[in-house]
Amino acid sequence: MSATVTEQLGAFVAETNLANIPPAVIGRAKVSLLHDFTMTLAGRRVETIGHIIARRLWSAPPQATMLWDGSKIALEGAVFANAALMHARSQDDTHPGSTSHPGAATIPAALAVAEARGRTGAEFLTACILGYEIIGRVGRPVAGVVTPRGYRPAMLFGGFGAAAAAAKLLGLDGRTIADALGFAAHLAGGLGQVWHEGSPEWPLQLGFAARNGVTAALAAELGAGAAHQILEGPMGFYKALTGSTDAARSITDRLGEDWQIAEATIKPYPVCAILQGPVGIMIALAQEHRLTPDGIEEIRLELNPFEANYPGTDNAGPYDTHTATSMSGQFCMALALLDRHVAIDGMLRFDNPTVTRLARRVRIVPDETIAIRSCRLKIRTTDGRMISSEVGAPVGRPTFDEQAALVRALQPELAVGTDTVEQFIAIIAALESQANVAPLLSCLVPSHNGGATLSSK
User: Fold this and answer.
1) Contacts for 302 with CB less than 8 Å, ≥ 6 apart
2) Per residue in 440-453, pLDDT tens?
């Protein structure tokens, strides 16, 4: 009998080491790690509950570091809290094909297991890349189908990446990793009602996804087995989600050739991934044409129908949560025009009358000719001008040096000194030479007092 999908994925995870991964893919991974850990540092300004839940539910034994305050708690608690923190600004990276946030699910899981089991920087980096790979491959065939049915792909698929990364660092063989992925399928969930209501639990969704993935890997390590055809079987994951098993056919196509982390995009702004391009061109047009709220007759934002109809995108207010503002095309376009930039503080100005009035002049328009993560913006002014621009490809694929410049620019929001920022950048750049993840952790916790030194194997 031929290998099942989870067996093929499990074997790939078990057999892949950093030497098997192309240098360009490793480079993209370092960009995502640099970005997502930066968002973790910046996330303390808005994260309020994840660390409290983790400490209450998983306080002992002290196995891994909680990045909120540097304290050690149980492995699964640290994973939960750190994933929620990384996602708290809604600015962690995304994978367009699976409509997911692979970093917030995968990286905290890998970090905690690497710390608890004493793994090297190279092993941590490899596990992160493999976690992204599994999320992207499991999610990309069905993200467009499950979202309208009410699922949130970021949580639904995130546990698979966390399970793969954790299992790799636990040293499991291919068959056991397949079992871990099977348990991740059983634990998968997460609903898009959060965007429909603008409710606040969305960072915790990534916390649960990451924790569930680690739980799945630990269960497999202890000898628990799972269904072999959990993804493609007649009563399996895809049949339950979509009513069909067709999605399973393409999951392993070009495995080891087309790397999913290479498709990941980072977010320059603390808003939904769909709105990264629109916010950027709105800021540029507002500056170039000196646009003012009183001079706007109408703003027309044209998006791919999947993104235009994504829960929360078309929301003209009123607003009373960060959830609602970060997703709303109307709010984000209004804020970008008014402020000429979009920062986390602006996303919390729920009752600003100027933003509220301008948001009502923004229309979200579906257009099938526009690709995913692209857009067309048309602005009609009160003096009769028509101003337009468009984005033809996903934004957010900077070089490592460009990403490092963004980290330095965000330093005032990170609650760490400039020396720590420079050491953090250097550690990520040389991650494969690190003997363990301790130097990285020392830069990420608030108690850092002067800087980590680079260590080598």
Assistant:
1) 308, 365, 366, 367, 370, 375, 376, 377, 378
2) 999 999 754 333 33
